[in-house]
Write a structure and sequence with these properties.
elongated; alpha/beta; seven-stranded mixed β-sheet; Rossmann fold; Alpha-Beta Plaits
Length: about 240
C-alpha cells in the first residue's frame, strides 16, 4: 500500500495530514513530541529501530515518535518509489538535512518540502527535494495538493490564507495563454503569482514543468495576493 509520510507535526504538518485524510485512510506522521497513551518503549540509540516499537494509531494517523534527522527512523519505514514524504519543519537547515537523509536511503521516493525562507529554495532543491513550496502561509494546502497526484479534488476552488489567495483558472479556446508553455508565460515575473497545480479535463492534478504547454480545458491553480491574482486575470 502506498505510504504518505509527514515529517514534523506543527501547524503545517497537522493541517496537511488532515487534508490528506480526506482522500486516504492513513497517513504517517513523524515527530519527537508525541505523548502516547500507552506505555512507551525506550529505544536505545545503539540498536536498530523496529516500527512496532515507536508507533501508535489514532484518527487515521500513524504517529511515529522519533527524530526525523535520524537515519534509523527512516529505515524503519521501509519506503518504496510509490511513497511520498512531506517535510514541514520549522528550520530550513533541518529541512535540507532531512531531505539528504531520505534521498540517500530512498532515492526514488518523492520528497515535497516547505521552505521557511525563499533564500533556502535552491539549497533544498539541491538536497534532492522534488518540489518545494516557498509560501509558508499556504504551505499546508500547497504541500498536500502536490502530494495528491491523480486524486479528484474539489471542483470549485477559491481559498485564502493570510492574504494569499488560491484560485482556479480554466484555459479556454479564446484564452490568451492557450498554446503557451508555463516557462514562456513567466507569471511570477509578470504578475507575482505562482502556479501551484495544473489539472486535466477531469479536475485531477497532473505533473507539470516549465515546458508544459497550456491546452484548452486545462485548469491552473494560481496562488498570489489579491492584486496579483487580478494581474493574472488580465494576462489570461
Amino acid at each position: 500500500m502506498r505510504k504518505f509520510i509527514i515529517a514534523g507535526f506543527g501547524d503545517t504538518g497537522e493541517s496537511a495530514a488532515r487534508i490528506i485524510l480526506k482522500y486516504f485512510s492513513e497517513v504517517y506522521v513523524i515527530d519527537r513530541k508525541f505523548k502516547f497513551l500507552r506505555e512507551e518503549v525506550v529505544v536505545s540509540p545503539e540498536r536498530e529501530v523496529k516500527l512496532s516499537d515507536i508507533v501508535q494509531k489514532t484518527d487515521g494517523m500513524v504517529l511515529v515518535k522519533g527524530d526525523v534527522l535520524e537515519e534509523r527512523i527512516w529505515k524503519s519505514l521501509s519506503l518504496n518509489s510509490n511513497d511520498t514524504v512531506i517535510i514541514a519543519l520549522p528550520e530550513d537547515r533541518d529541512v535540507i538535512f532531512c531531505t539528504l537523509i531520505i534521498k540517500n536511503i530512498y532515492p526514488d521516493v518523492t520528497v515535497i518540502a516547505r521552505a521557511n525562507s525563499t533564500e533556502s529554495l535552491g539549497k533544498i532543491y539541491r538536497a534532492g527535494a522534488d518540489y518545494v513550496a516557498p509560501l509558508s502561509s499556504i504551505s499546508a494546502q500547497t504541500l498536500a495538493m502536490s502530494l495528491l497526484k491523480g486524486v479528484e479534488i474539489d471542483k470549485d476552488i477559491k481559498l485564502s490564507y493570510s492574504g494569499i489567495n488560491i484560485e482556479k483558472f480554466i484555459v479556454t479556446e479564446n484564452s490568451k495563454i492557450r498554446g503557451i508553455s508555463i516557462g514562456e508565460l513567466d507569471i511570477r515575473k509578470k504578475t507575482g503569482c505562482t502556479i501551484i497545480a495544473v489539472l486535466d479535463d477531469d479536475d485531477k492534478p497532473v505533473e507539470f514543468t516549465v515546458s508544459t504547454t497550456l491546452r484548452e480545458g486545462m485548469k491552473l491553480l494560481v496562488a498570489g495576493k489579491k492584486e496579483n491574482i487580478f494581474k493574472f486575470k488580465k494576462l489570461t
